[in-house]
Design a protein that fits this description.
The chain has a single domain, classed as M75 peptidase, HXXE motif (A middle domain of Talin 1, Up-down Bundle), CATH 1.20.1420. The N terminus and C terminus are likely disordered. Helix content is 64%, strand content 0%. With 381 residues, the chain is mainly alpha-helical.
Length: 381
Amino acid sequence: MPTHPLTRPLSRPLPHRLACTLGTALAVLAAPLAQAQTAPRRAPAPASAHAVALPFYTPQDVALGLRRHWSAPLAERFATRAQALAPAVQALCDAPAAQATPRLHAARAAWTQAMQDWGRYTGVTLGPLLARRALRQIDFMPARPALIERAIARAPASAADMERIGAPAKGLPALEWLLWPGALQPATPACAYAVQVAADIERMALALRQDSDAAAQADAGSLAPEDASAAFAELLNQWVGGIERLRWTAIDKPRREASGHKGTPAGWPRAASGHTADAWAAHWQALRQLAVLAPNDVPATGGAALVPIEAYLRGRGLIALADRWTTRIAATDAAMRAIRPRQPATLDRAVRELAQTKRLAEGEVATALDVRMGFSDADGD
């Protein structure tokens, strides 16, 4: 599945020399800024969006917070949802004729819940999601009906069999196609294949959970400075990559390709099930949570809490930039709340706001934090 170059995530840490340079610079700045930012502010500027003083955060605070309070909990939630998929589909396959319709609805509901948690988990692709190329393995879009039909004919019956099935014929998009346009019926080869697809999603979800739990528990509560600096740089790069995947891959590119055609563009996420708006909302929710603080929130240091980008900026005394950042995120949030797949004006607004947010992150925020922006082809094709 081709992707726009700017949507490709960063898979490798920054070069050692750059990471060390960043770490050294942060260490030099730490002492005076820590003293300045832990003291209460005398009078917040009228434009300030956050009136509570924040401590000085280090890249290690951010990296450990991400592992413990972002990746691990989201991986756990998605794994729980994924474990419900195969039983729901199997119940449909085993259903008597009178129960086929309600069990199809139950299987669809299980898929929808898994899809939403997957969208929140992968809005910003980090750690195990990159290492396992999970977006390609679980979420190859769009589904390829011809390849799905071919896979059904092969009748895979085990995990080993599914390893020989290509990504375009399995994962969440393939299961969506089977449950909606395919309108699964009990005791059919297609239903048997859908069970295998659901089980394959579950296996990947459990592997992601295991990797995320291990990362959250590693390093005895600390990271080497160069590793923490690289993790922080990866966060900002992947956040920008997540914005661009939402703006271009999920919204703007499909509608441009479908220009002049009636109905929902087939390339929009979750178009087959009618859950496009839900998919956009889940993706944006992840980006927003990593971008800004809740009102009067003061994340703890030492990896005891998630440290959003806004908190990192404010903790380093970059108050004016943090205020512009929160204003920009608020404008984008309003556009994403108003977006409707069949209302072009709302699409125009969302694409415009997402693009402006990306420019602020790539330009002012990355520059202020001395983070080099880049991309990689590690996840997706």
